[in-house]
Amino acid sequence: MARKDYKMDLYKNMKGRIPMERQRITIPLSGEESISAVLTLPRNETKNLGVITAHGAGNDMEQALLVAFSDGLAEAGYPALRFNFPYKEKGLKAPDRPEKLENAWAAAYRYFREGSGAGLTRIIAAGKSMGGRVASQMVADKKLPAQGLIFLGYPLHPAGDLSKLRDAHLYQIGIPMLFFAGTRDTLCDLATLQGVLDKMSAPWDLEIIEGGDHSFRIPKSMGIPESDIHTRLAEKTVQWLEETF
User: Fold this and answer.
1) Where are the domains of the chain?
2) What percent of the chain shows pLDDT beyond 70?
3) How high is the mean pLDDT of the chain?
4) Chain centroid to CA 199: how far?
5) Measured distance between the N- and C-terminal CA atoms of the chain, rounded to whole angstroms
6) Alpha carbons 110 and 4: distance in angstroms, whole number
7) Which of 97, 142, 160, 218 lies at 20 to 30 Å from 19 by C-alpha?
């Protein structure tokens, strides 16, 4: 059980400006362990629905995609929280065991709902690759009471191997889901994903990023700045939130 002695402070971005209110949070886990998080709050009117975003296996909460995603949501009035898993706090490359990943997700959720002061009545769980997969498994197992799920690149199968699908738990989920998928994603074959979605009973939406890989990077030959892709992800999410909730 996480203690409620969260530590926080305001911090500035690399250019010395604060585009909206950001608070760096320390969220305690069991024992002496803790994780870092960043709470991003809207400048003006704040909605009572917020989004938590977890990083993927090979990055952390400061990945440009996740920073832009959270900032974009806050600019639209949605409080946003992004956090690190314990192994990233320690500078390790190998992800924690599933139980530890789930404990971190649960602690971040508790902080967002009970300790952030954002006045949230609904929380959406989002994640890049592994972060989203863990959240969805927790929702399927009734361990995470989120009202919706957002997948910033779902790892449907190992790279190039369609024989080992990570789809069984998705059919047990009853809340709305938003999937972002790139056409060059080697961990999520689009035709296979579509087949999975067609068998799901929960409401879902799919946004396809043409030319995008697993992190939505596109070939330079397409002439589209990375920042434009990040903006598109945030704008689509805002549209989905407004239409769904």
Assistant:
1) 45-244
2) 92
3) 92
4) 24
5) 30
6) 9
7) 218
